[in-house]
Amino acid sequence: MKTFVITGATGAIGKATAMELAKPGNKLILLGRNKQKLDQVIKEIKSATANPNIEGVIADFSDISSVKKAAGQIKNKITQLNGLINIAACYKAKKEFTKDLFEFMFGVNHMAVFVLTKELLSLINATPGAKVLTVSAPSSTPLNFSDLNGDTKFSAFTAFGASKMANLLFTFALSKRMHGVGTSAIAFHPGLTKSSLTREMPFFVRGLLNLISHKPEKPAHSIAQLVSGIHFNDMNGKFYDCKFKELPKPGNSSDEAIQEKLWKVSEEIANRFEKPVAVH
Ligand SMILES: NC(=O)c1ccc[n+]([C@@H]2O[C@H](COP(=O)([O-])OP(=O)(O)OC[C@H]3O[C@@H](n4cnc5c(N)ncnc54)[C@H](OP(=O)(O)O)[C@@H]3O)[C@@H](O)[C@H]2O)c1
After folding, report:
1. In angstroms, rounded to a whole number, what is the distance separating the alpha carbons of residues 60 and 15?
2. Where are the alpha helices (DSSP H) in the chain?
3. 3-state SS class at 154
4. Residue 20 in contact with residue 49, Cβ under 8 Å?
5. Among residues 42, 215, 225, 257, which is most buried (max CB within 10 A)?
6. pLDDT by residue (tens digit) across 9-53?
7. Ligand 1 centroid distance, CA of 180 (Å)
């Protein structure tokens, strides 16, 4: 049996990915922040696929203690993890702060992904061929390390672009730490996809994006194939699109010094949350 953890499972790409991977023989642990919504998704997938091995774990990515608690619950359930699929993300039009006082997109789209992945690495490293796939975008927005939280200057598009750049830098830094049992860190660009991600964007932008976007089943199918290892042997540290084309690393995402700088800063921030978290 292969086990996959999928974040953002109540969203467009997350739910479609869960549906793709819910074939018999796979076990899925789906993460969501809203219990009612998550239960409904699980019910739908179970009835569509007749796979009983699908469960939910609640995690609010705007709260690091909730992410850590979810990781603890996952580690209590499984000893191996074939794929961690990081999909959850948000776009915020206005400057807002998470419970931990991070600018929302930095906190949810990067810090929560960093913490969850690090917490689950022991499971990944214990599983030959395991994959960590993080859904990003070809963002070339540089990170402003002297103002990661947008304290002095905030632009929603810049903060979102920076958070997607952080996903790339994080994935490429992680790929260098993957060794031994054929594990891989992969970045993935879903292409423009119909979803709720744009809900806080201006009406005309939403309308235009909706017109030119494809259905979430398209990236979901590619994600499922990539994490199942069907297409390639050596995917570690690569950035793929829906057609399995390897994309060039945009902006300064291939700069190893910047990758390591983000890793170090993220680790320092995460260490502030080192207090034990109760797991029920
Ligand atoms: N759609 C596109 O055109 C496009 C293009 C490039 C990249 N992407 C990337 O694709 C990924 C999936 O996005 P999508 O298009 O499927 O958007 P979506 O439908 O809005 O899904 C986003 C998911 O993230 C979850 N989420 C948001 N904030 C959260 C929080 N604080 N805690 C826990 N979960 C939270 C949402 O939960 P709720 O259901 O509770 O809101 C939802 O499940 C994202 O990483 C996005 O950056 C999308």
Report:
1. 17
2. 12-21, 35-49, 64-77, 104-105, 112-125, 156-177, 203-212, 217-228, 256-271
3. coil
4. no
5. 42
6. 999 999 999 999 998 899 999 999 999 999 999 999 999 999 999
7. 32
What domains sit in the chain, N to C, each tagged with a CATH number?
2-271 (3.40.50.720)
Q: Please identify which residue in the block is written with the tokens 């603890």.
A: 72
For ligand 1, pick from 106, 195, 198, 223 the residue to mutate: most ligand atoms within 8 Å of CB. Answer: 195
pLDDT tens for 250-278 read 999 999 999 999 999 999 999 988 765 55
Give me ligand 1 centre to Cα 2, in Å. Answer: 24
Phi-psi region of 232 (alpha: psi -120 to 50; beta: other; left: phi over 0): beta
Whether 12 is in the pocket of ligand 1, judged by its Cβ within 6 Å, is yes
Which pLDDT does position 59 carry in this prediction? 98
**Straight-line distance from the first to the last Cα atom of the chain, in angstroms, rounded to the nearest whole number:** 25
